């Protein structure tokens, strides 16, 4: 059997490394999912070439630093299986590189997507109904009851579909803020706070990321649907 040439072996080994990181590293899974969402949004909004280049740069740096961080962690664990201050420093510095890159990616996303999202929110707000104070509480109760119904309906069958109630309420409130206020920056800050809550719950390993994301989608979807279909 013919042996693969050197460049083919290098490509295969690199591919195995990406698969390992994606299969075993929780943060890498999140970064890949976030990259898919961001690239899909770039196509949806029809961003100009320069903005797409910045998005690709941020996504590439994010994934590369996460791969390097994984390699450093495994190398340190191999060389120093016991706890050691220098080993901790090496891991902390590698993790810091991921944090810096994540900050750059977040800032890039906020700058690039601000104008398209502002236009989308302004267009959508013009087609909806005004929201009263009573409707807000009714809508939040609807979101809570829907999430509880989904949890009890599907979890009893053992398929693990249990949307997070906290993220559902958080993104419902963020969607209500976006529908109510005229300032797009305030609306985006509301979604930012909801996303911070989602990431905090995910970081504490209280709930799987899929459950948190499902709750966020349910809360946001129910709120937007009610805003457009029913006068409040």
TrEMBL record:
Residues bound to a divalent metal cation are 73
Q: Provide the residue positions that the database annotates as binding ATP.
A: 13, 73, 91-92
Q: What is its main location?
A: membrane
Q: Which GO terms describe its biological process?
A: phospholipid biosynthetic process
Listed cofactors: Mg(2+)
Matches recorded under InterPro entries? DAGK, DAGK_sf, UDPK
The UniProt GO MF terms for this protein read:
ATP binding; kinase activity; metal ion binding
Q: What's the protein's topology in the membrane?
A: Multi-pass membrane protein
Residue ranges spanning the membrane: these are 30-47, 53-72, 93-114, 126-148, 160-178, 184-202, 209-230
Location in or out of the cell: Cell membrane
Question: What PANTHER family does the annotation carry?
Answer: DIACYLGLYCEROL KINASE
Name the chain's protein.
Diacylglycerol kinase (ATP)
């Amino acid at each position: 059997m013919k042996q693969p040439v050197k460049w083919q072996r290098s490509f295969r080994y690199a591919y195995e490394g990406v698969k390992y990181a994606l299969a075993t590293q929780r943060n890498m899974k999140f970064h890949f999912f976030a990259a898919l969402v961001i690239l899909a949004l770039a196509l949806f909004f029809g961003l100009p070439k320069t903005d797409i280049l910045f998005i690709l740069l941020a996504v590439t740096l994010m994934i590369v630093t996460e791969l390097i961080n994984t390699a450093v962690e495994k190398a340190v664990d191999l060389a120093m299986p016991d706890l050691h201050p220098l080993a901790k420093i090496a891991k902390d510095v590698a993790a810091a590189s991921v944090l810096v890159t994540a900050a750059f990616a977040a800032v890039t996303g906020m700058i690039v997507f601000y104008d398209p999202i502002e236009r989308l929110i302004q267009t959508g707000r013009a087609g909806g109904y005004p929201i009263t104070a009573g409707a807000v509480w009714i809508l939040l109760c609807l979101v809570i009851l829907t999430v509880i119904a989904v949890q009890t309906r599907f979890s009893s069958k053992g398929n693990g579909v249990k949307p997070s109630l906290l993220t559902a309420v958080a993104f419902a409130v963020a969607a209500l803020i976006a529908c109510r206020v005229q300032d797009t920056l305030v609306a985006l800050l509301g979604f930012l706070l909801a996303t911070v809550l989602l990431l905090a719950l995910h970081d504490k390993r209280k709930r799987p990321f899929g459950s948190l994301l499902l709750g966020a989608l349910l809360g946001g979807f129910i709120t937007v649907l009610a805003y457009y279909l029913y006068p409040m």
